[in-house]
């Protein structure tokens, strides 16, 4: 033991020196825990797990969840903010004792901010299960947290460099800018970039520049989603490009994970704002050579959606389900350049305009549902008898034969353009004036 001039017992210098000389934050965490004889967790400023002690494993429920999910539970962070703990950590450099929250499985603990270059980079949590920390131990925490802040900073810089290299390699994959697959795999191994055995590319794009701030919230959602899933992402000014890894022997698993993610984004974003995203899902592949192909497929979905301005949930988000939508732009160009119109559809537009009917929209829904009356009526929120009356009107006004598959396929593609592309509909309406 050593004593200062005031007679206070000091922590043995050799332990503190070992911590201050440590270059690895995990080793420093173990040293702190063994000295204080208590479980210790270190998190970054976003409350994401950096290190935890293995010497003492009697963590409470909250810390167990933090270790498993690699992040402090959101409801705990909200409570800490509500009680002013987070604000106090930003303003003061001495330890704060946080009282138990029995309803949340949160035992009493001491927390101190780890700062470096004047910025808070993380937090050191010491669980006080039975015996509280004494004044000397509190002072010990104050003396070492500056070094812990530096270790967090150093780790962040190393990880940032790794992430930068990973991003560079992922862009190379998307653009086929690598000399050979073996060389790429070698470089990926050095950068600790895991090459998936099964994957799909998903692209989120905002519908207009004023919504690009939504990508920040999307990025946060993706980071929470990938806590127990393996995926990478690249961010551009208006897009987020995700590399979804599927399960090795589970066909279409990356597609299923992509669907789950999209539903999570929809819930967290909200119904109205969600449709400010255009979303494309490329097909699933098992060879990295096809990474670019999946990417281009996702982009094609987005380009098609951007062209037709689809109504919510009508156009497929998956390239494999795009079907006739792939050819709408080509059909638009061909019919517009040749000044072509369907006489039957012109008749229905005229009737809808003059008599305020909805025959055109009814016909599209009827064809989309393969002529199933009950399903179509439910989709249109009308009685089956009302649907039957409208179909009878369509048959009386036009030469449409619902038993002719070729005619139905053609009409459906033309209706997709009419009901989704305003300029195409206006072209038809203008033809009525000729």
UniProtKB/TrEMBL annotation:
TM stretches of this protein: none
Highest taxon of source: Bacteria
Chain ranges of the CdaR GGDEF-like domain: 180-303
One Pfam family from the record: HTH_30
InterPro entries: CdaR-like_regulators (IPR051448), CdaR_GGDEF (IPR041522), PucR_C-HTH_dom (IPR025736), PucR_C-HTH_sf (IPR042070)
Domain PucR C-terminal helix-turn-helix: 359-416
Family: Belongs to the CdaR family.
Protein name from the UniProt record: Proline-responsive transcriptional activator PutR
Lineage, broadest ranks: Bacteria, Bacillati, Bacillota, Bacilli, Bacillales
